[in-house]
Amino acid sequence: MERSYYRYLIPILIAVVMAIWIIWPDNPGINIAGFQKEIETRLGLDLVGGVQALLEADLPDNTTIEPEAMKTAVKIVENRVNGLGVTEALVQQAGDRRIVVELPGETDPEKALSTLKQTGLLEFVDFSDLTPQEVLALTNIKIKTDFAQEDDLLPSVEVPADSTENLEGNLSSLSNRVFHTVMTGADLKTVQVITDPTGEYQVSFELTPNGSNIFRDFTTQNIGESLAIVLDNQVISAPVINEPITDGQGVISGDFDYETSNALAIQLRYGSLPIPLKIVETRTVGPTLGQDSLQKSLVAGIIGFTIVILFMGIYYRLPGFVADMAIILYAIFAFALFRFIPITLTLAGVAGFLLSTGAALDANILIFERLKEELRSGKPVNQSMLLGWKRAWPSIRDSNIATLITCFILFWFGSTFGATIVKGFSLTLALGIVVSLFTALVITRVLLYLAINILKPKDFIKWFGI
After folding, report:
1. pLDDT tens track for 20-70
2. Cα angle at 293 between 288 and 297, to 5 degrees?
3. What is the CATH number of domain 122-272?
4. What is the pTM of this model?
5. Which helix (H) or strand (E) element contains residue 206?
6. Residue 78 and residue 74: Cα distance in Å, rounded?
7. I want to staple 91 with a disulfide (CB 3.0 to 4.6 A). Which of 27, 78, 159, 363 is the partner?
8. Is it true that the peptide bond before 342 is cis, omega within 30 degrees of 0?
9. What is the CATH number of domain 3-41+286-464?
């Protein structure tokens, strides 16, 4: 036996222990010296259920949409989805005016989709000449501004009883008035959710240098007056300016809970959409259907895996049983890799993983057939093994490189044309190929040398099936 292969035993054992720890169901994740990483199995929409939506530009069909505007819209929608905390959501452009959004595991699709399609136009509007009663009446109401006008009429509002008489004469004029926009959300630098000393949720923001100058000048000249914070023409709040704000930092307060404040922060943080969007189609995949698909896929995989293991053991005898152990380790390593990266597993991804198992077996079969040829020619076992791996390597290398090139082409195709099924298949297949090469060329070889050294087989017909 080539004793140099003993040095691989400890690294292999360490890798096996780490892989088993990663795939352990109740894995707590990694938390070392401030570095945190969750380890979980991420399932796609077709396995875990969720929502798929088709967004379309809410513009006339004859309107030309710039490709750059659509690209920006896709990026903003993707950022908003990630901000919602949806697990491994998918956002891709489809055609020249549509966007496909998949939200795996989403339990409140209406709320999530409403956040995605809003334009998110933030304006700071001058309310300095309004009375406190008029400001109160306009809070949570849509208004018209000189930056973005709103055609809908003001709905009826409720105001305190003692101010109704004074307000009735002005309500009609307020509904038709166009208010001045002091500054837009384009001057926002950072946005985050905070709580005040009483535990109320607020949205704090920091402005760019240009925005800070505008804000400083306006607040300095309008101490004691109201400045309305308006999102998509709707007044969110209208705080009174108590003192000049010169540091470019402010807070949006209102009747917020965590969800509403976080949704507002997402809209502001990731900018306003360059084009309005509407939802033209939604499809909900129930968790029952997803779980059923997953269970059937697992059953099919277990059946196929069992047949392959029996075939290798019966036909190739000792090398076959060693290859079976290597294939089991391959499955552990590959699944651990999928969880650690992590990779979202869809039905197509599971198919790619199972197909890469066949690639691992192909490499073992080529090696074992070469090994049997050398044994038939009368060479010793150790020399036959060395020649078998050496002469099988060119075929293994070329076939796997060709498969990896195909995976790269499929991944590029899926990314370019929005074919997510193709992307998932190509990614899991490519990763599986890499892991299978490691198991076939390293683990199988070390285990076979170890088995031969322990068993010292003499009857090649019995042990190797030649």
Report:
1. 999 998 888 888 776 778 888 888 777 777 888 888 888 888 888 888 778
2. 145
3. 3.30.1360.200
4. 0.61
5. strand 201-207
6. 6
7. 78
8. yes
9. 1.20.1640.10
